[in-house]
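User: Hey, quick favor. My workstation is busy. Could you predict this chain's structure for me?
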Amino acid sequence: MHRYQSSTSHHQIVLFILIFLVLGAHVSAEYVFDVFPVKKCPMCKEDWEMASRRLNCNSSYGYHCVPNKQFTSLIEFCYPKGPRFPFEKGNCLELAANGILNQVYCNDTFEDGCPQDHYFSNEMYKFPKCLMISRSLRCFDADHACIYSELLKNKMKEQDISTTESNALNDGDNQCNNIERKDGSTAVITSLVVIIVTIVIGVFVVVVYKKMRRRIKGTPGRRRKKGTLGRRCNIPAETYLCSGECTEEDRDSAFEDEPFISDNKESMIAANGALQKLHDVIQGSEFDEFKHLIQTFDRNALKQFNPRGFNSLHLSAKGGNFNIFKYILDTFKIDIETPAIDKRNVLHIAAFYGSCSICRYILENHKKLFDVKDRYNMNPAHWAALNGQESILKIMLELNCNLSEVTPTYDENIVLFACIGESYDVCKFVGSTEGIAGILHWKNSEGWNSIQYAAKSGNLKVFKYLCEMDVDIENKSRQTGKNCLHTACERGNIEICTYILDERKNETLITQFDKHEQHVGHFTAKSGNKNILDLLIKHLRNTTLPHLLERSTTDKINILHIACRHARFDMCVKIADTFPSMINEITERGWNAALFITEKAGAEKERIMILKCLEKRKLNVYHVSRSGKTILYNACVNRSAILVRFLLNHYPDLLKIEKSMDPRKAAKSQDIENIFISHFSQKNENQTVMIK
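Assistant: No problem, here it is.
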């Protein structure tokens, strides 16, 4: 008996070690740099910066937090490609392939919460719906179509499994009853050990083979296309000629024109590893190393695309080594007009990364590439301005490129893109250049001028320069009626707010309203910056509207409601202490501050703190809106598990309000339903104990 237990224990130890090794190998192979699973990503700028410091990220390795490529976890990491990258509106992000930030289309699939403006990757905290996923279903929580589809698939699978199990149950029972438990346990453990040992050996063989393959002279294999545009592949559908489910391999093989039939999977892995090595060397700009490595590749290999849709010529334009770029172009005859997935060409890419010699060569020999628009309708000058590449713009001007051109949809020019990228040098270059200085005063299709863009990005040096160049500081958006002070308050850019009010002494901007009757207080409450609120209170004393901050919008939303909606704890405390009458003010919809606390998902800890704080100041937690919504109902709709659990434990009478809608039916989530089941189970147990 003891010997059997010892043997079983030994097998279990071996089993656990092997499982650990296999899982470790899998995790390390998933991405080329370290990533760390987290329960949730930071939901505000302060938490984002704190997380960055915790991971020791820096200006070269920028902190990011997004879903992994399987959508089974949120992950945080220091991105080795840089601190921030521009992405198109209508998309969230994921970490795809072996470590590439990739867009995930959400404009038509989300009910709300999908980014509606271009943004930088280090601003993902502004879009909480992009950072909330259903790990079991591998969908965004806001992507109801995906969730419904996955639930339907799971239901069908369960029905198939149930049928199969019921057919096999009788035969299985008869066989299992004739086997001793001890022998069965030993057989199972032995089988598992054999299987896992086989897997470990297989992984080891693949790794060794990859290393050997890199030393062998030959041509990297090309994969046969076998996928199409899937819902997570942000690749234009016209680039595919096939159908089926999208995979990571499909992204690597986009635009391929020659099929390659691999002998086996290991050779494909080795070939792709070799190609990745070549791409890294091209971007590293070491010409001697490149010349040595390139001997093992042919033209077909250099035409292949990486997960972002860059071929070797695109990557050389990014790396900036003119010798590498010219060698690839002349020796392998790669088509210089081939676009990347986002329809950028080599000039777009070289302009953004500041590759001066490459840009000059392209403009002198292939100038028509300047007129090509990418999928964002941006030309190469726009990309140069976005990344502050003043020297590139000078080359373009010297070679008679049109630097005044605007994008066709939003009418954005290089000055507006320079303000987005916070580039003082580009703005100064434009302002000091005869013939284009006038575009400093340009307005986009919504009526925004460069000063409003600068107020949004928060660069005081750029903002001051534009004011000195007499750009209209009092300009208002035609669409929303917002002015630059509204925008600076909304973004929490106190330096610009201080400059407008203390140095420019502009008292007009502080008393203006937007088209929804929102004032500077509403926008400040959204940002959560208490110092800006203090600044506004000080300056409003000397205006014709000293009590402006106490005014609500046309639908009676006050600044406390806004602060609660965006989970700004410090701001809520400040407002409640300064304007206590706001605590129980009711909107046109019949909402009080309590309902605004759970109106949005994310930042559950802060929302609970706000609720406790305002309850002490006589907030009615049991308030019901005109349509029957309560604070618990909103929390269930947003699937805020922490909030739902907290409310059930501390305010159980929320379930007894006669007028309210049933919050349990609002979530449509098994996780939330389990919280209710657990709550009622615990309640019944407590009642039983009390009776006894």
